[in-house]
Amino acid sequence: MLVPKIIYTVFIASLGYFLALTIYYLFLAAVGSIEEMKRSMAGESEDYSLFYFSSLKLPVSIILPAHNEEDWIADSLQSLLNVNYPEFEIIVVNDGSTDGTFDILNKILKLRPVDAIYIKHYKDGRLRGVLKSELYSNVTVIDKDRGNKKAGAVNAGLNIAKHEYICVIDADTVLERDALLKVMAQVEKEPDKVIGVGSYFGLINGFKIKNGTIMDRSCSYNPIVAYQNIEYIRSFIGNRLAWSRYNAMPNVAGGFGVWRKDILYELGGFSAEFTCEDIELTFRAHDYIVKNKDKEYRIAMLPFYVGWTEGPDNIPALIMQRNRWQRVVNETVWRYKYMTCNPKYGAFGFLAMPYFVLYEVLGVFMEIISIAFVAAGWALGVLNINIFLAYLLFMLLSQSFVSLLSMLAFVEGQRLFKMRYIAYLIMLTLTEFLFYRWIISISKIIGTISSLRGIKSYDQYARSKRA
User: Which of 187, 25, 3, 160 is nearest to 93 (CA)?
Assistant: First the structure.
C-alpha cells in the first residue's frame, strides 16, 4: 500500500506544480501581450527625427567582442557602421582570435597602432595593443590575448569607452539600422532612472545579408532553428516584457544590451567568475537597485527588434549552448539565493526569483520525476491509462496555449515574418513538448551536472559555414 500512496502523492504534487506554473505563465503572457501592444503603439507614434537632432541626444559606445568570428565579423561590423544614430563610437575587441578575424578587421578598417590612454578599471586580461581605423574616426580595435571569457573582452572595451552609455552586442549579431535610435529615444525620457535596457532580437539563420544589410528575411525552416524562434518570442513577450512591467527583468541579454557606464563602474564591470556574464550582471544590478532604492532605478525591456543573431542549427550545437546557459543560471541563482521571496527585493524577489528557482533550476527534474512516477503508477495499476494520457495532454496543451498567446501578440505588434512562416511556427507549437522540450531538458540536466562538477568554461559551438 505504501508504493501506491507515494505514487499518488507525487502525482498530486506534480499536477499542482504544473497547474501553478501554467497559471504563472498565463499571467506573464497576458501582461506581456498587453505591454507589447501598448509599447508598440507608443513606439509607432514616436518622432525619432526629433530625438536625432535634439541637443539632449545620448552618445553611445558600442562594444563588439570577437573570438574566432571570421564568418560573421564583416557583416556585424558593417551593420554597426551603418547605424542611424547621431553620435557613437565602435570598440571592437579581438579576443585572441586564431582564425582570420583580425585580418578581416584590418582589411575593412585599415588599422594603425596608437598610444592610447588605457586605465584598467576592470579585469580584462593581457593586451597586445590598441589600434585606430584610418577610414573611420569613431572605430577603435583592441587586440588582446584570450582570457577572462567574454566578460574580459567587454571589460577591455569598457576601459577605453568614452561615452556615458554602453551597448554590448555579440560578433554574430547584425544590428538593425534604427536600433540605437529606437532604444535610446526611450532611455532619454528617464535617463536618471533607466540604467539597463534590453530589447528583442531574433535568429538570422536563413537570411540573406550583404555588407551588413539584411536583403531578404527568409527564415530558416530547420525545425531546430524554428523552435528557437518560438522560444525567443515566448521569452521576450511572455516573460521579459511582463517582468519589465514590474521592474523585475532578470536578464539584459548579451546579444544586445545597453547600460549606463557609471552604473557599470559602480558594479565593477562584467564578472568572469561565472560561466557567462549577462544574467549575473543583471542580478547584481537588481541588488544595486535595492541598495539605492531612493534613486528609483529601473531595468527596461523594449518591444523593438534591434538585431539578428545566429542560432544553433543542429542538436549537438544546441545542447552545447543550453548547457552553458544552464550553468550560468545555476551559478547566478545560487549566488543571489538570498533575494528569493525577500520583501526587500519586491517584485524581483517574489516574481522573478521563484520562477528561476522552481522552473529554471529545479523544473527539469520536476518534469522527469513527475512523468516517471505517473508512468510507474500506470504500470502498477495505480493510475489508469486515461489519467496518464490526460496528464501528458495537459502539459502539451498548456505550453502550446502560452506559446500561441505570445505568438498572437507578436503577429499583431511585429510584422516581420511571412504568414507562411507564422503558420509553420504555430504548427510546431503543437509538437514542441514532444520533441524540442526534451532536447532542452537533456541540455539542462547536462548543464546541472557540469555545474555540480564546477565547470565554468565559456564553450562556443562551431558556427555553420556561410555560403
Answer: 160
pTM (2 d.p.)? 0.91
Per-residue pLDDT tens digits for 58-92: 999 999 999 999 999 999 999 999 999 999 999 99
Spatial distance between the Cα atoms of 465 and 207, rounded to a whole number of angstroms:
14
**CA distance linking residue 356 with residue 372, whole number of Å:** 23
What are the cell numbers at 143?
Answer: 587586440
The long-range contacts involving 407-416, CB below 8 angstroms and separated by at least 24 positions, are 407/230, 407/233, 408/33, 409/32, 409/33, 409/36, 409/37, 409/237, 410/36, 410/233, 410/237, 412/36, 412/37, 413/36, 413/37, 413/40, 413/303, 414/40, 414/200, 414/303, 414/305, 416/202, 416/217, 416/305
DSSP 467: -
Would you call 111 exposed, middle or buried from its count of C-beta atoms within 10 A (0-12, 13-18, 19+)? buried
Grid coordinates representing 461 are 559551438
Q: At 173, phi and psi to the nearest 5?
A: -100, 130
